[in-house]
């Protein structure tokens, strides 16, 4: 029966208030774009002689930061004799080192790109949403640093719960997948869900998780927006190489490099890093091309989660390769062209669970004359390939900022079974292939109509060619109880589909007053896949700042979510009748439908400042936030692993609801930063209305009152398998000195020094995902704590620092289950990582 939701909200509101005692503040992400020079009210075109603006995450030698003191100098009498600026310079910074022509060219181009970066930010808005941002420096400082995956990093954001790699690795507000990833504002299209991450955190300048009632410009995937901005500090003809390794045979080398070339603009050679000012450039000069690339290789013996609590998994070796490249060029004062490309190739052995009996599914006791099999000797493997690229043209002129992008993505997944072993253990051995090839165009623009109104509009259209192949080895049978099985034979079930998605939106950001802003929009989406559907989706949200450090937000959004095309491919279950791979008699295979939902979100954020001196930047700050949400959905999309192949299949619940409340706190004081998050939530749904064959309808279960699993789910609101009632995360970073150690400090020439050292810790807590028949139980709760220490220091006669780090994963070696192998769409148990020790070294080049 449905649960009384208001009671739930009152209960979690009451219990959640106490969670504010969690201390912390993750470093607020540094802006990836510098503030431009004073500008008119309308968004200006980038000036040809714009002075170089500093990048938020760049070292002192990257962008000369020449105009920092310009306003102060302008305020002094013009005839005053120039004097040396009294500025404390860290020992590691060569304050008066002359800049080479190449460095000056990089500084000029960086200044121009900073203005374009800000203009790109004008195109999009997050008014009325809940956002949490992590900058590149913070990523590097946390345990594991840039050696962790994007999915691991996101576990430190509010409301993000951990899951197994087979189930998508994480969930935002208890939703299954339905995340959209954007790189520099461009939506990365859907692909094939696999185990491996396709992103390398090395290229990320900042990553923001945006949740709540999203504005109209964000459609389709709406459980959360992962907004990635690329780095801006790698364009000075430098980079780094690194090596990371440790427990479980981990080997992880990496490289990154970036620079600037092709500039025809004039430079000067008489300036230094602190006094440099870009010369006035000719209007027709070419500022050059910015570029950088990153590459990483990973291998270890815990590619995906161990199905046993043992320290070492059986047959779990992985090799993963990831690369990323970025290029941009300003082709005229108002136009920039950029290219992004990425690749990921991941190979996995599927780990084995020893001691499994044969004949437990399909009653197969003889496969090609083999009558016994050791499940520890299974040889299943999976290969995943992903390639993507985005070509964008950005235009900024007369108050208009726009970006037009072409994007493409190719995904391929191949699961290879153990023919004899899978047939004996599971009654079926499936060789599964999934391919998705997507191409599309996205256009977004904003126009500042006046001081009160900013209009935004845009569109997107994409075509996806999806191919799903399934060749299964089964045995023929009539009774299918092991008494009349015949010789194994193969069944092939292939599906191919060209699907289309299109969307268009318009919205107005209205600044009613300096403190109150309303954003209203309307979106229309059309899908042509295995079903055809469309929807108009209104969006309305507001932000109110009654005081400088107090922000209230609220919003409503109507959402339209198509299923992932390859996961919605229909299965021809009739092919498997009278075989050991047959579905329940009379099972339905209704097509997967788009999800339609209404979403409400409201929250408040408060910043407290204390311990302030004459400089406001010296204040310690404590930020507190609370956000509550409620969603009601028709045709709620879910998916799971149904069968021995570790691939996901989608289905719909007729109705579902999702509700929760999140608390977050952040603290910073000098060189200390910390954060903490707690979320209390639930998602429940009822009545599968598509791909019903995925639910068993033959075996009555005592714990379900004598109903089959399908009968129970059809008549009860059940927790979704990825529901977790309480989720929490926390972390802290402390920096000694706040700068790299000099060579003398690093090697003890002047005694012991802690300069350049950073200590860090983070943790995650989960009350446990669902388990049992129809998700009526949960796995036990768990806490995982990670530690890190690193030191950045200079070598003698070398201005580019070296960094060494040591990390401990699962400090207390907590043995815990993420999944226990039961529940809807859960096939095998998966345990969290055991304690591991890792050492890394990297060097700027």
Automatic annotation (TrEMBL):
It is a multi-pass membrane protein. Residues 37-54 have a biased composition (Pro residues). It comes from the Bacteria. Keywords: Cell outer membrane, Membrane, Receptor, Signal, TonB box, Transmembrane, Transmembrane beta strand, Transport. Gene3D superfamilies: TonB-dependent receptor, beta-barrel domain, TonB-dependent receptor, plug domain. SUPFAM superfamilies: Porins. GO terms for biological process: siderophore transmembrane transport. This is Outer membrane receptor proteins, mostly Fe transport. It comes from Bradyrhizobium erythrophlei.
């Amino acid at each position: 029966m449905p649960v009384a939701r208001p009671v739930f909200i009152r209960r979690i509101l009451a219990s959640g208030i106490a969670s504010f005692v969690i201390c912390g503040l993750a470093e607020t992400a540094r802006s990836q774009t510098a503030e431009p020079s004073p500008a008119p009210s309308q968004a200006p075109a980038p000036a040809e002689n714009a002075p170089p603006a500093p990048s938020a995450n760049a070292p002192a030698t990257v962008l000369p930061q020449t105009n920092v003191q310009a306003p102060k100098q302008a305020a002094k009498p013009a005839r005053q004799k120039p004097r040396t600026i009294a500025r404390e310079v860290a020992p590691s910074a060569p304050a008066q080192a002359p800049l080479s022509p190449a460095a000056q060219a990089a500084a000029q181009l960086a200044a121009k790109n900073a203005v374009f970066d800000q203009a790109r930010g004008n195109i999009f808005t997050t008014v009325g949403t809940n956002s949490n941002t992590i900058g590149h420096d913070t990523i590097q400082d946390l345990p594991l640093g840039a050696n962790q995956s994007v999915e691991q990093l996101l576990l430190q954001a509010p409301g993000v719960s951990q899951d197994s790699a087979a189930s998508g690795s994480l969930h935002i507000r208890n939703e299954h997948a339905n995340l959209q990833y954007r790189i520099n504002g461009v939506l990365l299209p859907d692909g094939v869900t696999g185990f491996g991450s396709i992103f390398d955190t090395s290229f990320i300048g900042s990553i923001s998780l945006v949740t709540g009632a999203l504005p109209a410009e964000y459609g389709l995937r709406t459980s959360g927006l992962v907004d990635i901005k690329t780095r801006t500090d790698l364009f000075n003809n430098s980079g780094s190489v690194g090596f990371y390794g440790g427990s479980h045979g981990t080997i992880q080398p990496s490289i990154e490099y970036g620079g600037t070339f092709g500039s025809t603009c004039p430079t000067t050679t008489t300036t230094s890093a602190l006094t440099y000012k870009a010369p006035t450039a000719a209007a027709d000069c070419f500022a050059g091309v910015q570029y950088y690339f990153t590459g990483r290789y990973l291998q270890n013996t815990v590619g995906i989660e161990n199905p046993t609590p043992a320290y070492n998994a059986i047959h779990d070796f992985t090799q993963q390769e990831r690369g990323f490249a970025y290029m941009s060029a300003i082709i005229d004062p108002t136009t920039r062209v950029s290219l992004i490309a990425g690749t990921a190739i991941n190979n996995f052995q599927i780990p084995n669970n020893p001691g499994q009996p044969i004949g437990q599914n399909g009653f197969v006791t003889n496969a090609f004359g083999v009558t016994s099999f050791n499940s520890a000797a299974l040889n299943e493997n999976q290969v995943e390939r992903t390639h993507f690229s985005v070509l964008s043209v950005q235009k900024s002129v007369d108050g208009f900022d726009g970006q037009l992008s072409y994007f493409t993505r190719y995904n391929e997944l191949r699961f290879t079974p153990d023919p004899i072993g899978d047939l004996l253990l599971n009654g079926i051995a499936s060789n599964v292939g999934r391919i998705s090839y997507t191409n599309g165009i996205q256009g977004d623009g904003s126009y500042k109509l006046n001081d009160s109104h900013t209009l935004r509009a845009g569109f997107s259209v994409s075509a996806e060619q999806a191919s799903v192949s399934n060749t299964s080895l089964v045995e023929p049978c009539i009774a299918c109880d092991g008494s009349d099985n015949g010789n194994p034979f193969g069944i092939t079930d292939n599906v191919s589909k060209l699907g289309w998605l299109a969307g268009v939106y318009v919205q107005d950001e209205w600044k009613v007053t300096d403190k109150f802003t309303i954003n209203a929009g309307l979106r229309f989406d059309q899908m042509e896949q295995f079903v055809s559907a469309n929807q108009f989706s209104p969006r309305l949200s507001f932000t109110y700042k009654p005081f400088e450090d107090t922000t209230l937000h609220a919003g409503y959004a109507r959402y339209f979510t198509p299923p992932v095309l390859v996961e919605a491919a229909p299965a021809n279950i009739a092919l498997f009748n009278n075989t050991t791979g047959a579905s329940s008699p009379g099972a339905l295979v209704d097509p997967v439908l788009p999800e339609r939902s209404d979403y409400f979100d409201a929250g408040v954020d408060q910043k407290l400042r204390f311990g302030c001196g004459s400089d406001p930047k010296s204040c310690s700050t404590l930020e507190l936030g609370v956000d509550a949400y409620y969603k009601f959905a028709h045709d709620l999309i879910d998916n799971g692993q149904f069968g021995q192949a570790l691939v996901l299949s989608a289905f719909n619940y007729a109705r579902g609801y999702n509700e929760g409340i999140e608390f977050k706190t952040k603290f910073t004081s000098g060189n200390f930063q910390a954060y903490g998050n707690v979320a209390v939530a639930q998602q429940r749904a009822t009545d599968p209305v598509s791909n019903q064959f995925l639910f068993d309808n033959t075996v009555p279960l005592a714990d379900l009152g004598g109903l089959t699993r399908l009968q129970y789910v059809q008549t009860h609101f059940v927790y979704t398998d990825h529901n977790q009632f309480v989720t929490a995360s926390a972390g802290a970073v402390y920096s000694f000195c706040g700068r790299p150690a000099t060579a003398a400090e690093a090697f003890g020439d002047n005694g012991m020094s802690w300069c350049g050292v950073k200590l860090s810790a983070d943790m995650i807590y989960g009350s446990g995902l669902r388990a049992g028949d129809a998700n009526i139980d949960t796995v036990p709760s768990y806490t995982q704590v990670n530690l890190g220490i690193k030191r950045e220091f200079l070598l003698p006669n070398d201005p580019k620092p070296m960094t060494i780090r040591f990390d401990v994963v699962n400090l207390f070696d907590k043995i815990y289950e993420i999944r226990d192998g039961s529940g809807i769409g859960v096939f095998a148990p998966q345990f969290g990582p055991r304690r591991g020790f890792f050492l890394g070294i990297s060097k700027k080049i």
